[in-house]
Amino acid sequence: MEPVRFAVAVDVMPKEGISDPQGQTIERALPSLGFADVHDVRVGKRIELVVEAPDPGTAEAVVRAACVRFLANPVIEDFLIHVSGPEVGVSPEDEPGEASGEELERELGRPAGGPSA
Questions:
Q1: What are the chain's domains?
Q2: Residues 76-116: pLDDT tens digits?
Q3: How far apart are CA 101 and CA 105, in angstroms?
Q4: Which end of the chain is more exposed for a tag (fewer CB within 10 A), N or C?
């Protein structure tokens, strides 16, 4: 089976009960900016990548292993994996890292040149 490129996003958040000083700082600042009704702010990170795999399950398994070993700290962080695709067939002459910014935006489901968040 020919490998397929899957756009994958990983959302990493502090586990419930783990201190989130960045979220607390934002929450304290919001009322003075007119957002008094916003509560329980938590700050995490989003990691977007493209994985070559034969199917979505394999792509998710590869990313899950990367999360456990490197992308997240499973002791204090939870992560959620989102797999999109298959997006683009991969031919043998394709080299990793050769996709343009616009191609990656399309693979991640965002309009080219649009906001990244």
A1: 4-17+43-107 (3.30.1280.10)
A2: 999 999 999 876 444 434 444 444 445 544 555 555 444 44
A3: 6
A4: C
